[in-house]
Amino acid sequence: MNLEGVSGHFLLCNGKSCTRKGAEAVTQAVRKTINDHDFTKSIHTTKTWCNGQCKHGPIVISYPKGDWYQAMTPTLAKQLVLAHIQRQPFLNNRLYTYAEEHFKKEEKDNTPKEG
Ligand code: FES
Fold first, then answer.
1. CATH number, domain containing residue 43
2. What domain range is 24 assigned to?
3. Over the stretch 19-42, which tens digit does the pLDDT of each residue have?
């Protein structure tokens, strides 16, 4: 694949633990949102094996920003892609971010609360 012009790359964990927690539905939601908005030439996706964060899965990693997202659902996955398309930050469920030349764990719980 020619990456010239690609603005983002989502790494979609499809390891065993994430798959048990719904990773395939997350993968489909990410790819459907990219297709629905005709961003297939500028957003690349790759399924990965385990990323070593099983207890937080399903995991989605946004590259090159270096944001790692936990407990992803199809709804959150769609919101994440739309935020990327709109060049907005997406903080919900962010587990790690890359800043000052290393990864930093989120200090607060960014998981949206139900009800
Ligand atoms: S299976 Fe996804 S982090 Fe381990």
1. 3.40.30.10
2. 12-102
3. 999 999 999 999 999 999 999 999
